[in-house]
Amino acid sequence: xxxxxxxxxxxxxxxxxxxxxxxxxxxxxxxxxxxxxxxxxxxxxxxxxxxxxxxxxxxxxxxxxxxxxxxxxxxxxxxxxxxxxxxxxxxxxxxxxxxxxxxxxxxxxxxxxxxxxxxxxxxxxxxxxxxxxxxxxxxxxxxxxxxxxxxxxxxxxxxxxxxxxxxxxxxxxxxxxxxxxxxxxxxxxxxxxxxxxxxxxxxxxxxxxxxxxxxxxxxxxxxxxxxxxxxxxxxxxxxxxxxxxxxxxxxxxxxxxxxxxxxxxxxxxxxxxxxxxxxxxxxxxxxxxxxxxxxxxxxxx
Length: 301
Known about the structure:
Layout: E1 2-7, H1 11-22, E2 27-30, H2 56-69, E3 73-75, E4 79-85, E5 88-93, E6 97-105, E7 109-111, E8 127-128, H3 131-134, E9 142-146, H4 150-160, E10 165-169, H5 179-186, E11 191-194, E12 197-205, E13 207-215, E14 221-225, E15 228-231, E16 235-237, E17 267-269, H6 281-300
Parallel strand pairs: 1-2, 1-6, 2-3, 6-17, 8-15, 9-10, 9-15, 10-11
Antiparallel strand pairs: 4-5, 5-6, 7-16, 12-13, 13-14
């Protein structure tokens, strides 16, 4: 019987584990893939307090080492279900089950797809969802980035240092991401902005060869020959396995306020899979601290 079981070992989950361990609670972190979450793919974190520049990988490694040093236990297993029976939480994974007094769900989110025919078949053959993972394969080639948030802007900036040409395609006439990054992109001679447009067709011969881009206002269609397409159109929260216990909003995020408490007593949520206004590294770690603090209060009642 653990005091706290944390589902997900991203920044929110590991921060929650740190706070729970500092309160002398036993902690188990369950992670399906690898610790770090989506931030591990960010080449340069510039907006986190204290560290002006640090890679997502280095940040995640330091956080992991800090969490381990405090005595949190890690198991790399995928959580498929959580049960609540007489106040005892049973977390079921693909390898076994674990009991806890409180559970913190910090599963984050996964890449949202374009939804264009042939997209799945071309993943790894011209389509990527991680610029820092695959960008080097497109050195001195032509690529496009689809999206308008910080991830898309950062991807385009990263690829501009590698690729011959970068198209940045966005469905609106302005970006949601930080203006400072937009300004830096506008200074790059090899970056072309395509506004009010969506990718409506993928053209391939074993690998992606070109895309069709449709202007949402005029309806005109433009074919762009390229070697790689990087999709950065948002994330989908990974909460469906917990819908039997917690409330989800229309987009699939777990409904919870700043105290990170869900409708089920003893189950908390932290990070990008929670209903919130701002999804950033700093708010993920803040959620982790709050969720653990509230979980400790719940256990001590």
